[in-house]
Design goal:
176 residues; alpha+beta; Cytidine Deaminase, domain 2; five-stranded mixed sheet
């Protein structure tokens, strides 16, 4: 208490107890400011009973699902990217649209794909995108993003099972 006593002596109108309270208040305010952050909370609620989840047996099943949910009115107009999020038994946990692009391409943000995988508690993903041109041949960019996503997903123990290109003629081709 020598410091408070010296402080009180320098300011005879202040009382050591009030100085201590003020100091403590300042420290608490500073601590609150330093540690003030938004709380992050992870929750997972699957609204579909396990017995009602569709089972994906291979690329044909996945392509059928993608072709059913795709907006046929825009398939020849803009490129889109979607993913099927799967559990260990390859039952569908969810379907997500990753991006909508332009006529010649769509941006795929790896972080967004990882966020969906983690949020859905997925152990596997199947990705699909359309080519508005109708061409099912994968571009070099298609192959690069497939490799990049596969590597990123492996880091969190999620498998990229397939990347499928679809077109408005209801045709599809897996990227190998």
């Amino acid at each position: 208490m020598p410091k408070l006593t010296a402080l009180a002596a320098a300011h005879p109108t202040s009382h050591p107890t009030s100085e201590y309270k003020q100091l403590k208040s300042n420290i608490m305010n500073e601590t609150d400011r330093i540690f003030k952050a938004s709380e992050v909370k992870l929750t997972y609620k699957n609204k579909v009973k396990a017995s009602d989840r569709y089972h994906i047996k291979g690329p044909n099943d996945a392509a059928t699902i993608f072709l059913e949910i795709w907006d046929a009115d825009t398939m020849d107009h803009i490129e889109e990217v979607k993913i099927l999020l799967l559990n260990r038994a390859h039952h569908i946990l969810g379907i997500a649209t990753i991006s909508k692009g332009g006529v010649t391409g769509s941006i795929i943000d790896t972080k967004v794909v990882l966020q969906y995988a983690l949020k859905a508690n997925a152990t596997a993903i199947i990705m699909a995108h359309n080519h508005p041109s109708g061409n099912l041949k994968p571009s070099e960019a298609d192959r690069r993003i497939t490799d990049r996503l596969r590597t990123a997903l492996e880091a969190i123990d999620v498998n990229l099972l397939d990347h499928i290109i679809i077109n408005s003629d209801k045709e599809f081709e897996p990227i190998e």
